[in-house]
Amino acid sequence: MKFGLKINFASIRNSFKNKKFKYGGYATLMTAVVIAIVIVINLVVDQINWKADLTQNQMFSLSEQTYKVLDNLEQDIKIIGLYETGKEERVVTEIIDRYLARSKRITYTTIDPERYPQLVAKYEKDGQSLSTGSLIVESGDRYKIINRYDLVNYSFSNTSGQFQAQSLAAEQRLTGAILYVTAEDLPVVYLLEGHGEDSLPYDITKQLEIENFTTESLNLLTEDAVPEDAHSVIIFSPKRDLTKDEEEKLRKYMENQGRAIFIMQYLNQELPNFQSLLKSYGVTIDRSVVIEGDNSMHAGNPLYLVPELGSHSIVSPLKSGQMYMLVPGAQSIQILDVKKRSLKIEPLLVTSENSWAKVNMESATLEKEEGDLEGPFNIAVAITDEIYEGNEKKETKLVVVGNAEFLSYNLVSQVPGNANFLLNSLNWLQDREENISIRPKSLTVPRLNIKASQQLILAGVVIILIPLAILASGLIVWLRRRHL
Fold this sequence. Notes:
single chain, 484 residues, alpha+beta, Glutaredoxin, Rossmann fold, eight-stranded mixed β-sheet, 13 helices, 22 strands
């Protein structure tokens, strides 16, 4: 039995000419071209040293203040990460890469403290060993250690009963450490005492330490003058007045380019010597409590003000960062009509035109009564007294706040804008503009609130429109191929 195989070459040639072959050939060619383009694009992009931060709060981007610090570096900085090989913290190293890309003066190395303890021994103080995950920032003979737990801020959740990561503070800590190791003179802040002043909350003192401020106590009854190394003085919620002698000492300090923050709480008594000092700089604090009549500018209680932020470098970062402030029981600050021409007084926190101030504290109502003051009110101001002696400019700076409750522990921990206001004020007093607004970046996931009508529309799009569109496109392709 024989089997024969006949090949019809004419039929094969004709098959290359029909519509189905042409359509399939075009499709194959286009697929090959697209794949080739994708491969070329990936090869080109891989050679470009460019990254885009697509996170909502720009978590991996550096602030303009950090860029200024890096661009002005005049000495080499070494960052050392204490990590086991292959176990680096990706989020932190990603941020460090941004520092390396910006400045050639910064280098980064990692050391495994378990394998090479002798290399980190010189950085250990008071017998305390460094933990894995910490960072060391070094320049010359000065260095600063950033504990791994300081790179992230945690808050205690009453719901879960556990600490939860709240914000990423890597840039804040790194830039602060760079400023520390490169600074010629670290600022010293004196806290006035002897008049029943309140203590600053721990969160504030911790933040001052991070931003390289040294805090000291100051008692003008025992000191002959404000110490010469004082970069600024904080007067925080005094309950008693200055003596004439203390006022004179503080006045001499201020006149000699002094810097101070007056944070004054409402009292049932006058503080004439404090008021006299403030009047020298064009303001006085009214013994009244501001009531906010605009519902959009209080937190459900007309005493709990959510003031408008002024146009000043102290509060501008709060605006851009969409931070608000909560100020309960504020006093109004009056700008005097008669004052020195050298004074520049700028509002920082302002109430609405619908606000009023109660002057009668024995009143049983918060409603506006005869004799109450009419708003709007300044509840915080920044003051600059600039004079020239010869060709030399001398500048005195003050920040005056008519409230102290905004720095209470609960509000500082729950309202970031309150703590940032104080820190920005201190940096402004010290002319350290590069530190203003370098703040932790939130790690909390924002909640998406969708109305019932929006839910119906989205459900209709996802459940009905999209499947119908896919079905229609498939039907069109099938019909076209059927008629080829």
